[in-house]
């Protein structure tokens, strides 16, 4: 009688897309929260400022803030104020994420 040995499937590909070592990007929710102020930086709107460069959305709470190329850098301010670690680009056609803790793009 012939005995057939089955080999375990070779692990050539890792399914996890997030960079290793970054729990924030790994644990970020798959479904983004709804933007609190779609298309507008919340703090700039309160200041009457409309001179931002790009917008970023916090994946913890949906806060929309302006990027570091903008005069007020409200997205980074939001991280400093709240410690919400991951944001996503809020620009049309962009879907990258950023972890403030590790300065890591995903
Ligand atoms: Zn991280
Ligand atoms: Zn702003
Ligand atoms: Zn937030």
UniProtKB/TrEMBL annotation:
Ranges that cross the membrane: none
Ranges where the UBP-type domain occurs: 20-106
GO molecular function, one term: zinc ion binding
Region annotated Disordered, chain positions: 1-31
Pfam families linked: zf-UBP
Protein name in UniProt: UBP-type domain-containing protein
């Amino acid at each position: 009688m012939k005995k057939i040995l089955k080999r375990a499937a070779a692990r050539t590909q890792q399914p996890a897309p997030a960079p290793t070592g970054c729990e924030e990007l790994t644990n970020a929710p798959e479904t983004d929260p709804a933007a609190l102020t779609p298309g507008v930086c919340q703090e700039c709107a309160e200041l009457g400022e409309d001179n931002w460069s790009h917008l970023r959305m916090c994946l913890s709470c949906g806060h929309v803030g302006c990027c570091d190329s903008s005069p007020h850098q409200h997205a980074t301010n939001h991280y400093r104020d709240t410690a919400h670690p991951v944001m996503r680009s809020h620009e049309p056609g962009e879907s990258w994420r950023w972890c403030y803790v590790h300065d890591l793009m995903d």
